[in-house]
Amino acid sequence: MRPIEQQVLLVTGATDGLGQAVASELARQGATLLLHGRSEERGERTLSEISARTGNTKLTYYRADFESLSEVRDLAERIQAEHERLDVLLNNAALGIDPVRRVTRNGHEATFQVDYLAPYMLSHLLEPLLIASAPSRIVNVVSAGQAPINFRDIMLEQSYDGMQAYGQAKLAEIMMTLDRAAEVSGTGVTVNCVHPAFNMPTKIVTHMFTPQSEIADGVRSTLRLITDPTLERLTGRYFDQTREASALPQAYDDQARARLRTIAEKLTGLSADTMTDRQQTEHAP
User: Fold this and answer.
1) Residue 220, pLDDT above cutoff 80
2) Is there a contact between 210 and 26 (Cβ–Cβ < 8 Å)?
3) Coil/strand/helix, residue 82
4) DSSP 3-state of 68
5) Is there a catalytic annotation at residue 238?
6) Structural domain range at position 109
7) CA distance 181 to 87
8) Domain count, the chain
9) Which of 160, 166, 238, 252 is catalytic?
10) CA angle 218, 222, 224 (to 5 degrees)
11) Which candidate, 266, 28, 268, 284, places its Cα nearest to that of 125?
12) 5, 95, 182, 230: which could form a disulfide with 30 (CB 3.0–4.6 Å)?
């Protein structure tokens, strides 16, 4: 990969917690950063704070609420229109364990949409730019707190449980990682995912649990997948912090992943075949 100071990186969920800490370290190293969040006010504050702390002015903020799939699409289109390259997509934005079931503007269970459908859609839409910028990387922030997907009630309308909602969304993101890695094999784009640390002191943790690690632990794990040159060809892997690990068995079930893909394609309006054909056309010699 290019030296970090020559790279363009998109960090979703960059206005607090792990995303902000990772963005700060990347800014300190001189990267060009595209920082995403859902609040204009917090976004501007984040830009000012990171710039003041690191001296890096190569920072741009993009507001998009992942509870709206049209805003996810708009985010991808703006980035493609405004940037000639994208070296890294860090899918970090997420909801935590919500004790009350909420529905997005698209009518989907909120955790499933924000933690899975949004990064699924963003990764698909930015794939042509990532391929054109190869070698490049997609890094998905997931969790060791996984739960098998309940395909009979994937939106948990019949019986809602916040732990199930979070766990199945994170497992779905791991399944997406394996699929995307296979689909972009040979393009120079790698796709991996990481459980960064156990119960870091972030807002999606502290409202329910006592923190048991530091954000710095999660930063180290995540940065490794973003910047480590020895991982340039490694793809389709799940890491528990810095150790390669195995997710729940359902993640490796081809039929379950195919079933999940079909659901994601329908709910996002994206077709894997259509996307592949378009990418091949756009990048044909």
Assistant:
1) yes
2) no
3) helix
4) coil
5) no
6) 4-282
7) 16
8) 1
9) 166
10) 120
11) 268
12) 5
